[in-house]
Design brief:
Structural class: alpha/beta
Strand order of the largest sheet: 5-1-6-7-8-11
CATH class: Alpha Beta
Order of helices and strands: HHHHEEEHEHEHEHEHHHHHEEEEHEHH
Number of helices: 16
CATH superfamily: Alpha/Beta hydrolase fold, catalytic domain
Number of strands: 12
Length: 412
């Protein structure tokens, strides 16, 4: 695949430091507006200016760890051609290349964080005087192995004061690193929507019913969402490790899964209990979202999974599962993907890194719950129609990409 002609998305992969400089100086404005969209460009540009003008302390470093699917992944090409971006390149998906993300011997490598999700947080930290380093990683891999890899990066960091902010799965990778010798150097870990107690979104991805998986399958003319779940997502070690372990459905036992639909990889499922991230740590503070319709429970009924949806979550992770027993937690009405981008969350992160207490609720509110139950069969009826990416105009393409980041509607 590395011999193929590079797509426009391959050529627009910039390191976040370069993007910050271009935004702050107004250079390559036309390309950046096409890449980010006008609204996002207008939002980020003044933030980039504030970050560039701030005096950053090289001895106060914050590592930002993206969540699952929050790091771009690519296949190397011979220079001077750019690497073949696999995640996230719609042109590749149109050609069926999402299948290349299946775990294999291919030399897939991370190539920076997804800018939409993490540039706002990076700029906020830099404007406050921190030196920020984004630790991108191959989110398909085993969380414990990624933690060891991150600990090696911590070990060679010359700064005296090291903090970490982990979004979603990134918080679990950071917790794995905290348990190593190098991890003792970390002063604070702030987790944003991290599924400390697991989440049902990975289960839905493995079953081919998660909305993002189904939207991606719309771009692939030759593969259904179920095929992608079976042949691609079922090979990701990390998805199994983020399943709830304490659920009555006992998802760690493959015999408890419905016989119809995509099945788990039994070997990867058996390895889940090998991951031990430890318990409470005084250095950890969790920020959890609430108020968005979220799968909060699952049950197997007549050979199908039924998910109970309710407002006690951020749309992806149930609120109670985004906290860690024995550590402090704070709560906000912000959806999962927006947590790193939200100004009130960014302010809370800065307060926690300084050893203070954020201006967020210290307990989740009592919510009016009108639960509904949705089955795998119901969810498979969503996003069935295929989309011809090559036939879309620029506005339609931007609309589709924006829909991948679309926040769920809050539950009133």
């Amino acid at each position: 695949m590395s011999e193929e002609i590079p797509s426009v998305y391959d050529r627009l992969v910039w390191p976040e430091a370069e993007i910050g400089h271009l935004l702050a100086t107004g250079q390559r404005r036309r390309e950046l507006r096409a890449y980010l969209g006008d609204a996002e460009y207008d939002r980020l540009q003044p933030q980039a200016v504030a970050a560039m003008q701030a005096r950053r302390d090289p001895d106060r470093v914050v590592f930002v760890l993206p969540g699952i699917m929050g790091s771009q992944l690519s296949l190397p090409r011979e220079r001077p051609e750019p690497d073949n971006l696999l995640w996230l390149d719609p042109a590749d998906f149109q050609c069926g290349h999402l299948m290349l993300l299946a775990w294999s011997s291919r030399p897939v490598r991370p190539c920076g964080p997804v800018l939409y999700s993490y540039l706002p947080l990076k700029f906020a930290l830099e404007a406050a005087g921190y030196t920020v380093r984004c630790f991108d990683y191959d989110w398909r891999r085993d969380i414990a192995e990624l933690g060891v890899e991150f600990s090696r990066r911590i070990a060679i960091e010359p700064a005296r004061h090291i903090d970490v902010v982990g979004h979603s799965m990134g918080g679990l990778v950071a917790r794995a690193a905290l348990r190593t010798e190098a991890g003792q150097r970390v002063k604070h870990l702030v987790t944003l929507g991290t599924p400390h107690g697991g989440s049902y979104a990975p289960l839905q991805a493995l079953r081919g019913v998660y909305p993002l998986v189904r939207r991606l399958a719309q771009l692939d003319p030759g593969h259904s969402a179920e095929a992608l779940a079976r042949d691609v997502f079922a090979t990701f070690h990390s998805l199994y490790q983020m399943l709830p372990r304490d659920d009555g459905a006992n998802l760690i036992d493959a015999r408890n899964w419905p016989s119809l639909g995509p099945q788990p990889n039994a070997t990867l499922l058996d390895r889940v209990l090998m991951l031990d991230l430890g318990g409470a740590d005084a250095r950890i503070g969790a920020i959890a979202g609430y108020g968005f319709e979220t799968p909060v429970h699952v049950a197997r009924v007549e050979d199908d999974f039924y998910y109970r949806y309710g407002p006690a979550g951020d749309g992806t992770v149930p609120t109670a599962r985004a906290t860690l027993t024995g550590t402090e937690a704070w709560y906000c009405k912000v959806p999962h993907n927006e947590l790193p981008r939200d100004p009130q969350v960014q302010a809370a992160v800065l307060q926690l890194l300084e050893g203070g207490r954020p201006a967020l609720a210290g307990a989740p509110p009592t919510l009016i719950d009108h639960p509904r139950s949705v089955s795998d069969t119901d969810l498979r009826k969503l996003f069935e129609q295929k989309i011809d990416w090559s036939a879309l105009d620029a506005d339609a393409r931007r609309h589709f990409l924006d829909s991948l980041n679309e926040a769920p509607r809050p539950v009133c």
